[in-house]
Structure formats: C-alpha cells, structure tokens
Specification:
Helix content is about 40%, strand content about 10%. It is α+β, with helices and mostly antiparallel strands. The protein folds into 2 domains: about 250 residues, Rossmann fold, CATH 3.40.50.1240; about 140 residues, Rossmann fold (3-Layer(aba) Sandwich). The longest helix is centred in the N-terminal third of the chain and has 20 residues.
C-alpha cells in the first residue's frame, strides 16, 4: 500500500518538474526535499517509503544530586548548577530543544507527504517511549511539534517513570561461559586496565572540579587510584565499580551543565575550556557507557528486545513512520549489535550518542524495483543546543551516515533492504547462541 502511494507521488513530482515553465529558476542541485548529504539526482532514482527512528532523550538533570559524589569530589569553593527539575528528569530546555527537532521532522515529513498519511491513517505512525519521565516527555515534545493539534498518543506500556523491558538494557541471559566471553571482549576492546585507556580525560575532569580542594581529598586524590571492573547479574544492567564509575557521574554532570549554562566558563567552574577539552570531558562518560554496553556479546544481549521491535517496525507494511525513545545505552548497544563502524560526529562533544540524537533507518524503493535502506545518526550540534537554535533546511541538524561493517553500499550510499534486515536478524539470532 505505501509502495503504491509513494510511487504515484514520485511520478507526479517528476511530471510537475518536466512541465516547469522555461522562465522559472533552475533548481538547486540539492533537491528541496533532501537535507541529508546526497549525490545529485538521488530523488530521481529513489522514493522514501518508511522511516524508523530510535531516539535518545533530550537534556536531563544529572543522575545524582547534591550531597552525592558530585559534592564530595568537587572543590568546596564551587557550586554546581541549580536544577529546578527532579534528578534524571527532562529539563525545560530539553523539552524546548526536542520540540525544535520535532518541528524540523514535520517540515521534512511534509515535503515527503507523510503527514497527509497520518491525517488519513494515524496507525501508519507509531510513537513509543520507555516509561522513564525523560523518555516519555521527550517523545511527547517531539510528537507535539511534529503533529501539532493531532493529540497523537505516546505509548506507555509500564508504570510511569519505570523501565520498560523493551528499553531496559539488562542482561536477560547468562549461560555457561557468557561472563568469561564478555569480560574477554571488554578487555580486547578497552584494555585490561579500564582506567588507563581514558587516563588523560580523567585527569582533565579532576582539574576542572579541583579535586585536590574537595571534601574527599586526601582519601580520594584521583579517580585512577580506584581500579575499575565490570560485573554481570541476570536481569540487571552491566555494573561498573571503581574510579570510572565515580568519574562518569562527574563527567555527565559537567556535560549537562555545559549544555544548560549559557556562560561557558561558569559551566567549567571558571576554567576556559575549548571545544576539544569538552570532548575530553565527555569522553569519560562515553568510555564508561561503551565499556558497559558495546562489547559484542553484551550488546546483542541487552539490545535483544529493542532489535526485535525495530525490525518489526521495518517489516510492518502498514507503518510509514516509527519513533522509539530511549537512552544512550539503547542507541549504543543497538549500533554495536548491528556492527556499525564508528563515526566522527562533527559538531558534537559526545562522540558516540549525543544528547537527543536519533538513529534513523530509511527505506526506499528504487526505480530499478529494488528496496534499499540506509542508516543515519542525526543530532543537534553543540552550537545549536547551547543557542537553542531553530532547525530548518537552512540550519538543519547534523546527519552522519552510519556504515555497517561488511555490507557493501551502492554508488548512492544505500544498502539493499534485504541486507539490512539480514543484519538485524543476525544480531537477534546471536542472542540464542549466548
């Protein structure tokens, strides 16, 4: 059904272009309905059929509050940002930023004529979020801006502010040898000493918070003095102990403070940090997340229910747009399970899964009759986040194509849909062999 509709629309668009009066301006080489980097003529060869979005929630408050490790390891002369929202809740700024992203998606979907599909058949769209407040409210902000006045429902399948099993990155299967294999993969990817691999960034975080003048000093002189290790328990998230866990809480709070606080030096407690410095501050929490969730055996374990859900949306012929909202651990584990190559993510200080970022799977029908797909990481740049910039085709979010290891793309950067679905199926099947 969606194939026929979009083929008709594509034919009408081509007919209208062919009948353009001679005195009209030449079209922009980048088609007006495309904002992702594409080769010239892309729209003449492919029509968009479906979009599946896996989103990280937008800006939240820190996971820990005053009186926690933040206060103990930070100089007594420093005061952390005063958050008006509860711990781990979406902030007002995060709400506004997500609405800007939703408005941009509305513009994109209008140009692709997907919004009219919703008007005729709301079930062609699905909005589903984890039960945590920051995920539910992010999804509501997004859909409220994408479909204003439509009163579209965001699915809540558990008690509000609880974890939904689909998004809960817990170990759901521990067989003989799983822990040994997972530990071996972590060591191969991140080194035997988990602190050593991120030592430079740990030192920078210590300098920013002036740990030597904190209440915890001299018992805690540095994060690296406490060896870090990972443990696994059935039906619980992978668990970290040691200095890296402490440092992650601080790194996370600093990054959120940087997003929220207009004065950059104030966000760094009076330090003049450059962009690369903030990348290094953020690297601590991202190292922590990647250690916990991206080793191959761990990724296919914790991402299993979400991979099934995403593939189900991709194979649902009645669906044209799906929006699933969770956490950085969800995006990180799904990408790792799909064997995604690491990207550069320009303009972001979070180099794995930026705040509010979206993994987007697009499905196309080619003029050759073959179905294709590609995957993108889409996010607002740091400059756009801090300035709360409106997003538009003149000022779009950043879009970086995600490449899957071992899959061959065609000249236009597309995989066959069969290959992408097979990669999902492979990751899902890997769970059975754990």
């Amino acid at each position: 059904m969606k194939l026929t509709r979009l083929l008709i629309l594509a034919s009408l668009a081509l007919f209208a272009f062919a009948c353009k009066p001679d005195n009209t301006p030449e079209p922009n080489p980048q088609p007006v309905t495309e904002w992702m980097p594409r080769l010239a003529g892309f729209e003449n060869k492919y029509s968009l059929e479906q979009v599946v979005v896996l989103s990280r929630h937008n800006i939240r408050t820190p996971m820990v509050g005053n009186g926690s490790v933040l206060t103990r390891v930070t100089s007594s002369a420093y005061t952390w940002h005063h958050w008006t929202e509860k711990t781990s809740y979406l902030t007002s700024k995060g709400d506004r930023l997500e609405a800007k992203m939703g408005s941009f998606f509305r513009d994109w979907m209008l140009k692709k004529d997907f919004i009219s599909v919703y008007d005729r058949n709301p079930e062609a769209f699905r909005f589903y979020a984890n039960g945590k407040q920051r995920c539910q409210e992010t999804a509501k902000s997004f859909v409220g801006a994408m479909l204003p006045g439509a009163d579209a429902e965001v699915e809540l399948n558990v008690e509000f502010d609880a974890m939904d099993p689909v998004f809960n990155p817990v170990i759901t299967k521990i067989s003989d040898g799983f822990v040994t294999k997972a530990q071996s993969e972590i060591q191969a990817k991140f080194g035997a000493d988990l602190n050593a691999g991120i030592a430079t960034s740990l030192k920078l975080v210590e300098d920013v918070i002036d740990i030597k003048n904190s209440p915890a000093y001299p018992d805690t002189t540095s994060f690296i003095q406490f060896p870090s290790s990972v443990g696994f328990t059935l039906n619980k998230e992978p668990a970290m102990s040691g200095g890296l866990k402490m440092a992650c809480s601080v790194s996370d709070a600093l990054v959120l403070q940087f997003y929220e606080e207009p004065d950059e030096e104030k966000a760094a407690f009076g330090k003049a940090l450059g962009f690369d410095d903030w990348v290094n501050v953020s690297a601590v929490k991202e190292w922590y997340q990647n250690v916990l969730f991206t080793a191959p055996s761990v990724a296919v374990n914790v991402a299993h229910p979400l991979l099934i859900t995403m593939l189900g949306e991709m194979q649902n012929d009645k669906r044209v747009f799906s929006f699933l909202c969770g956490h950085d651990s969800n995006l990180g584990s799904v990408l790792a399970a799909l064997e995604a190559e690491p990207g550069e993510l320009p303009g972001a200080i979070e180099k794995s899964t930026p705040i509010g970022s979206k993994v987007i799977v697009e499905t196309f029908l080619g003029k050759d009759g073959v179905e294709y797909a590609d995957i993108w990481m889409v996010y607002a740049s740091v400059a756009q986040l801090r300035a709360e910039s409106s997003l538009s085709y003149k000022n779009p979010p950043v879009a970086e194509q995600v490449k899957l290891r071992g899959l061959k793309a065609n000249a236009d950067g597309l995989y066959t849909l069969a290959d992408v679905e097979a990669r999902f199926t492979k990751a899902i099947a890997a769970f059975d062999s754990l």
